[in-house]
Amino acid sequence: MKFKAILFAVAVSASSLAFAQETKKFGPPAGNALVGDVYGGGVASNVEFKAISVDKLSKKLKKDKKVENVAVKGKVTDVCDKKGCWLTIQTEDNSQFFVKMKDYAFFVPTALKGKTVVLDGTAERKITSVDEQKHYAEDAKKPQSEIDAIKTPKEEIRFVANGIKVVN
Known about the structure:
5-stranded mixed β-barrel; 5 helices; globular; 29% helix; 33% strand; 7 strands
């Protein structure tokens, strides 16, 4: 009888713990992306002050294929809806450049769309394959017709961010 009571108590405890576990939420982190919010390793104030425009970055990348330890100020146009693991920044010619988080170490909320940020990290001109372009288009929930229209690799600015700070 004692054995059954102990077994019953263990079963009830185990099931209570199992149901009490919080289910892991998938998706971008919550947050309103308010001015001053920082993601990743942060952006030091002296780095923020030295941030260059997207246009200046583009000009630098015409001379050098890669620019390390650069801070860039720009407007976020899109954020990965699945995890917040990438974003795009508006360029002066109304195109965009792609930003990934260094070592996949942090994510950003979708509320970052439309905000002006300072990115601290490394930029380079890179060829993006058709498959990779399609993958990111799917993450961005683009229409299938737009995804199917991706037929050629493209050269673009790619940025790997160590830190991101909302500035406006």
